[in-house]
## 1
Amino acid sequence: MATIRVQTADFDPQAEAEALTAGRRDVGALVTFTGLCRDEGGRLAALELEHYPGMAEAEIARVVAEAERRWPLLGVTVIHRSGRIAPGARIVFVATAASHRAPAFAAADFLMDYLKTRAPFWKKEHGLDGRAGDWVAAKDEDDRAARRWDG
Amino acid sequence: MKASYFAWVRERIGKAGEEIAPPDSVRTCAELIAWMAGRGEEYAYAFENPQIIRVALDRAHARPDAPIAGAREVAFFPPMTGG
């Protein structure tokens, strides 16, 4: 049973991790990943994250279902924030629980690669000079990372 | 059908969405993008580089050759940059 949330509010990685394993005796491995907003060398005032409501949750659910098909997972949590996010603040959280570490690590890695290329979110940079900057361009390296899992 | 626009596609068109009624001759996502580009100056700008525009039909990713028949909702957006 996966937990999937898209929200403007911050989240508590520790509490989310504990919720995934609370009361269980079968989990031997818990991997968590937290993505943060960088200041890009001091020039960024904030990132603005736009998303496609309805599809964002549905697409994350499809990616999670694919991860559950590939690895024997005991629990998955994915949280992605939207709205304006300041440097240093959390953007995304992925946690995977499994009996052993290999599927937990692999599934978390896979989930992040697929979220970046398939979940309908877009980042716009706001600079310290007060100007609304550019939309972040998709990176070829993210596409390459996602293609690692093909075949 | 209901059309939604996101990120710079939305900014270039100047609105978040609208009802569209493509003719029956428009059958695939790629043909729909070409038809959208002909709707006016702001649409031509938004769709000037059609191969980088992504399409979702009823909130699921669709390939350029996917048929649009039966879809109630279509969305156009740039490659995603979340995570």
## 2
Amino acid sequence: MHHLGNFSLMAVVVMCAYAVVASLLGVRKQSSQLVNSARRALIAAAGFSALSVAALLALFLADDFRFEYVASYSASALPWYYKVSALWAGNDGSLLFWTFLMLVFAAACAISRRRDELMPHVVATLGGVILFFAYMNYWVCNPFGQLAEITAAGPIPFTPGDGNGLNPLLQHPIMAIHPPILYTGYVGFVIPFAFCVAALWTRRLDAAWIQNTRRWTLIAWFFLGSGILLGGRWAYVELGWGGYWGWDPVENAALMPWLTGTAFLHSVMIQERKGMLKIWNAGLVIVTYLLCVFGTFLTRSGIVSSVHAFASSEFAWRFLVFIIFAAILSAALLITRIKDLRTENELEAVVSRESGFLFNNLLLLAACFAVFWGTLFPVLSEAVQGEQISVGAPFFNRVNVPLGLALLLMTGVGPLLAWRRSSVDSLKRNFTVPLLSGVAAGLLLVALGMRHPYAILCFAMSAFVVVTIGTEFHRGVRARRAHRGGTYATALVDLVQRNTRRYGGYIVHFGIVLLFIGFAGNAFNKDVIADLNRGESTAIGPWKVTLQDLPSGETPVYNWLGAQVLLSKHDEPVGIFQPRRQLDKATGQATSEVRRHATFQEDIYLVFSGVTEDGRATVHVYRNPLVRWVWLGAFVMFLGTVLTLLPNRSPVRRTATAAPDGTALEAV
Amino acid sequence: MRFRSLLAIAATALLTGPATHLLIGQDRYNSADYQRVTHALTCQCGGCNAIVGECAMDRCPSSEPIREEVARRLQAGEAPEDILSMFAERYGLVILAAPPASGFHLSAWILPGVFLLGGAAVVFTVLRRRRSAAAAVPAAGGAAVPAVDASPEVLARIERDVDQIR
């Protein structure tokens, strides 16, 4: 099986190299046969990549511990589904999976956009990028390497009786889906990047490449965001520290391209509508993809210390060379095409939708820079000062919370601004009700005794944005009913179906508001640690946690010890919970299995930290308000994004612009 | 006498046992100062980078003793800042969860703000330049943009109608 895996990996290398050479030769010789063969080579590479992933999976499922990667991340007692997810538990396998996903995107693009005139250059770019990853997988971190014992007679094959097992923290259902979803987001940005490079390369710099890649970008953005939120959910339910976001370098690595991708999804609308910001948009796509590659470099190079990272120094310099090479090449393309990227229109007013998008972009980029700077500052400090320092949550929260609040405000302000120019009258008309709602919400909270300034601002702005979104829907429905009649509900459905992008976008904004409400809850987190004998209690606010028993047990994979506690509120029993400590048999690693009583008001989060020397159970109780709103917000964002991906029922408008080949472009 | 002493000790133990326990729960580990200090320090176990106040590792060889020491020092009346300085002296700056706002490390705090302000200046400059360019078009091109012959009331009505269908 490993021969098949290795052969397939080599075939991916050959196919990608062929795709680059054949597509470029095809363009030079104007041979459609060569160009098509390059495109097919990329599709074939996806097939070979699938074979190599299947080969590694087969080794995992067969418990073939002759192979170092299988022995390092699996054990025979592991359930089959965790043997599957062990595929991406380490550096080599996750890179194989990463390459496979990138090829799935590349093949889907090569099939669905085969008639696109940028395709030869897109194939060359995709082939070049994937060639690097396939090279790394075959020569630098090949997951099909076998274990060997070094003897005097030379190395002889060695097969351990069992594997080391999978890190118990990764033995969680979310971990079976979080990495593939996150990787899909990371690799998906390769498509807009390839189209951007192709457009710059061929100087076909109208909005066509942007319109053709809008859905690809949105899909990548959606998966990256979902992956980040799923990661947060996993951290919350599995790691046992009571939070869902720790500003770990690996978390930051995923957040950065998501922020620039979000900026791109907004600013692209200006280019589509007005032919402006062409350089900016091309730059954003390039930066977003480079940040995706930089993210995997951060995770795998070991240059920053992270609980998630797979440190590998062999990896680091090659990846760095690739990133620098890609950055220089992209920048050179951008600079040499600046004259072709001239804007087709000018901004007419400072107070307009266009400038709103510009400020939204500025805030998103500033947030991205703050995260980038904070993540890399320890490396810089050590290089300059020779002293190790830490940059953790207190830094990131202090810098990013004001930026996040400003972004939340822009979520509400943007849709209220008119394209081209907002008159004072329209500003008054559009802003009065939402603004009053926000101020009223803020004052009410102050009157009720809330004193945390950021939380008050957050709730007030949330009210402002929700009223803005509601007003936008209501206005649209009113206009539709005036035009076509019908009930409010039918007009609402009709309105959304006619412009899924716009109203789906508003639903995503609503999801963002719900996320921020959840984030604001963090300001009021409380926790208590107590060492309890049976029958003793600890209290946090109106909640009381009473230890009833210390049960224990065993499964084929782990031994466990639990703290059975009765949770009551105002002395009324709410339920019996059993947070546990588990000791993984294969790895010897102890983990917490937290238990939660979750409502939309607050989560009571119970962690059993262990038993003291005198036999008392150490129970850590967190009272985390509004956490459920984060998961609800994520779900609403999911719905909104799906809606924006759906086609409109009928075109909203037709643009008068024409593509270079003379065919009319339809803006939807 | 002996019986009364024993009774007093037993009663005290019985009554203050849970109270002491709650005291440990409420005061020793859960005061605002304790939270502040333990959330300003990072675990030094060598891998997790967790905030000391959040480190979930069972009997962590780094976070656990630090938490104990913070609680002890706070109970002894030491100021939170002094405790943080003491830890920074003992372990180096690496134990602080955020870089100090002084010397070279000040740049960590300043640069994001410089980026934002610099970006805002660029955006304003671009907006102003483009607006002037847009305003200059009719002047340079003569009647490039036809003048609208309508009263302010009509223009306002058009704007309102456009808003309605926007």
## 3
Amino acid sequence: MAMIRAGLQKIATAFTGGQGGILSRFVSNLIPRENTAVNTQKDVIATCNKLVEERASRNFAIVHLLGKQWRVTDGDLVVVEGYWPPNIGDKIKFDKVLLAATKDFSLIGRPLVQPGLVTVIATVISKGLSHTRVHFKKKRRKQFMRINFQRAEQTILRINSVEIANKINEAPKNVF
Amino acid sequence: MSNKNLFLKSGFLRAPLQNGVGRYVCQLQRIVLKFCKSNGSSRGIRDYIEQDLVEFAEQNPGVVVYLKPRRHRAPIVVGEYLNGDRVWMSMHNKTHSEITKWIEVLRTQQGDVAATRLRKYQSTDHPSIQGPWTPFTFKLPELNTATLPNVKYGENNRLAPSATEQLRRLFEKQKLDEKDLKTAE
């Protein structure tokens, strides 16, 4: 036990010893200075609303689409595999938004962010078939061999916009 | 069979000319149907031309449609795309409904998408918006102003007390109890 303690202390001194040690440089560079004023909940929400209004940074969202979750931001391309009715040129609004965020804050849904708060719009730009996938099965010494060829439908989506409405903490309207 | 051994190009997801940003442009520009007027293998494509082709051309004013009859040759369809891709497809002995479906695929795809194996199913220019994680992410900012070494942060509370330590504590507690014990003296 004593040896472990001594070892830990040695490591700690290596980090903190000398001119502030190894850690202090990172700490002072990466983390904002301690905030002495205590923000109340209202202040935080007001700040977030202000950031949204100013469009201070790029937004992103995590959307649920055909059983998969995608992290999307403006200008992204996404491939949906399998049968999916939307056709080329269609504009789509994603309703299942699990999380929406900017650089400085995140809105986390439980499980979904309330409807009307976040708008994610995408355009279908291509509906084609994937390359031919070969499913080859062979069992050694058993006279068993199968080969199957398969092509899946692939829909390419362009994410046009991820927008957060400027009304965080407003009562949700039941759209669904 | 692994992808490494296949003679197949691999690539990343792209869209020609930022398609879909701002507006969407149909990528099929020209479609050529080559067929025979008498051969049985062109039966399906002749049906398609008679019944559906005019409607197809009307609905897609951006697509140039060519018909090329040629004697005693198998029917084919060639689509040409904005990004320069050319997709050749045999329509030999295909029925009317099959041809309808294949031409719909040619119309809706954005080039020769089947010629490449996609390595990623998503592409983004902004892989991280909130920044990558570091060991100091989500840590208290108190650490910035604290003077180290500090008992509060240097405390070793990660290891459970050892058996010796536990026995020692028990012994100390027992001693305390004995002191309080009243005797009959």
